[in-house]
Amino acid sequence: MLELTAMTDGLLYDWRTGRNTRHTMVGLLRQSVFSRLAGYEDTNDADRTSVDPAMRHIVGGRAKAKQAASTSQMGLFETEVLTQPENLSVLMDLCGLWIDTVRHRKPIHEIILDLDSSVSETYGQQEGSAYNGHFGCTCYHPLFCFNQFGDLERCLLRNGNVASADDWRSVLTGVLARYRDLDIRRFFRGDAAFARPQVYEDLEEERYLYAIRLPANAVLYREIEPFLTRPVGRPPNKPVVRHHDFQYQASTWNKPRRVVAKIEHHKGELFPRVGFIVTNLRRKPWQVVKFYSGRGTAEQWIKEGKNAVKWTKLSCHDFEDNQVRLQLFALAYNLGNFLPRLALPRSVRHWSLTTLREKLVKIGAKVVTHARYVIFQMAEVAVPKRLFRVILERIRRLRLPETVPR
């Protein structure tokens, strides 16, 4: 209804000739994305999904009467067509374009960006795979940027042995530019890997309010020395938490910035737990800490992507092929993440992406074909008829007006 995949029509360069063009680029992209959303993360699964009636209608065109793309066709599409530099660039921008389309239907008043890296373990001789001492395995080290709704704004596959903040501008700069002209409040959160003066300056230039974890050092500890002493008396069962803020300027910073410290004294522990956050927020110290703690949801969204759409299945040899696979997984994740916000009633909006897949996407049905229409007859075991009707009605309402430019 939002024509998310249709917006790539004319954007992806197609150099195929002859019988290889029996399916359009948009149709092949739909098969790649919807297959991953349904839990078929490998191109080898195309032999099964190509004859599936629902997938044939999703792909459209000739697939309705015959079958969707085979394993060899999908392999050619993902490893030869989408890996072209111009197509890969479009694919990496597509997550942001989809989010912008959804934002036009559901306007927002603020944006909160969370930047975080993750691990994608490898088990072969994949190009770019390397041992990472922090994660203790041979892996890739992708970088993700989420918004407060769990939508994946942009992602980037990187070599396994790079630092957590390596090439952060390739991910963050484009996202910041997309929200530049919007009259909304802008926030950013990041862990200590992104505590870099270049990050602060870019965010301040784009008028973002940020809270970024700051690595501890001797100068910072001297600022909170009076708070490091354990309170007098028997320690309570609950931690004793104190907050403090002060101005601090590192040698590489162009100006002093506000730092908020959180000091926790736990029962049975000799030394307090201390954390520092650099911020330009004007909130009280405890409110800054609470805002920063919200970035933990980004780690939950990364786990959702790993468990539901299996975006760690990057088993191709060439690095560019795996870069394409990650972008396709990101599109499938976003498509599933849009569903609760746009189509699900409040009673089931709490469903995880895995639950959505098992109850709404990857389900069996009896297909009855007539001359002018197709009927999908589904059991009410997973989703009652009334609920399914409500979901379909909410999806139907998403159809964009004809006057709105695509």
User: Count the strands?
Assistant: 13
* Terminal CA distance: 12 Å
Radius of gyration: 24 Å
Beta-strand percent range? 15-25%
The helix/strand order is HHHHHEEEEEEHEHEHEEEHHHHEEH
Low-confidence stretches: 402-406
Classification by helices and strands: alpha+beta
User: What average pLDDT do the residues reach?
Assistant: 90
How many strands, what sense, and barrel or not for the largest sheet? 8 strands, mixed
List keywords for this structure.
alpha+beta; disordered C terminus; 13 helices; 406 residues; three-stranded antiparallel sheet; 37% helix
Question: How would you characterize this protein structure?
Answer:
With 406 residues, the chain is an alpha+beta fold. It is built from 13 helices and 13 strands. The chain has helices at residues 25-37, 46-49, 53-59, 71-81, 85-105, 168-178, 197-205, 218-223, 285-293, 296-308, 319-342, 353-361, 385-396; strands spanning 110-117, 120-121, 130-132, 137-140, 143-146, 152-156, 185-190, 209-214, 240-248, 257-265, 273-279, 366-369, 374-377. An eight-stranded mixed sheet has the order 6-5-1-7-8-11-10-9, with helices on both faces. α1 crosses α11 (319-342) and α5 packs parallel to α11 (319-342). The longest helix is centred in the C-terminal third of the chain and has 24 residues, at 319-342.
